[in-house]
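Notebook, bench 3.
Goal today: get a predicted structure for IL17RA/B N-terminal domain-containing protein from Chelonoidis abingdonii so we can plan the truncation constructs. The sequence was checked against the plasmid map this morning, with no discrepancies at the termini. Length recorded as 133 residues. Pasting the sequence as submitted so the record is complete.
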Amino acid sequence: IKWHSLTPADLHNLSAQLIETEVDTHFRSYLINISWSLSMDASIKELTATKICVMSKGIREHFECIRCNYTEKFQSQTMFGNRRWQFHYIGFPVEPEMFYSISAYNLPPANIYEDSPSKSIMLTSPGNLLVSI
């Protein structure tokens, strides 16, 4: 465990939606499109990555995390036009009739005994996801 003199603020926003993809098997499949935006404060200069974890519950349970690394240090708190930095990740597969708990937090993480900021949301998939084309 490493002590960080400064750590980034919490994500400003976290959202998710199902998106449809087509595969060669003539069935539609779905993925989760996870979107997040960053807080507009000076701590953005400490941000190195965002970690996203998805836990699914239903007929079977699954837990998976990914780390989205930022390739360069942020030089500004906002994008052009004074807009928040916004990112998307598409890649978690969706199964019918499942509950998805999605959580995300910025890295480096808060130090021990400090508030560990994170955002969490829930998403439910309908039962009729696999449809023949």
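The chain has a mean pLDDT of 85. The CA atoms of residues 36 and 87 lie 5 Å apart.
Flagging this for group meeting.
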